[in-house]
Write a structure and sequence with these properties.
With 95 residues, the protein is an all-alpha fold. It has 4 helices and no strands. It has 2 domains: 44 residues, no CATH class; 48 residues. Helix 3 runs antiparallel to helix 4.
Amino acid sequence: MVHTRILDDGKVNVIVRVAPTCEKLPKALTPVVVFVSLFFSPHLTLVFPPLLALVLVISAILGAFVVNDGESTWQEGVVLIGFYVVIASSFWWGT
């Protein structure tokens, strides 16, 4: 909610400065959760299926193309929504 309110005020630079600190928590907790799961019955691993790895790479490339110019248009939004539908349907029917 706070991020949306700040973006509505037009303070994008504040969000850009806060975003890297929000990324630190998952990066630190993921290995801890994996190691803690060794003490429980279903062990967690960091092994991803090939489809998921491919989707992660393609979405990173597409995201870089979309945010590269610093502007957002409705066409880019339609492309992202279409890509989301393709990802969701590939996981629904592909796996």
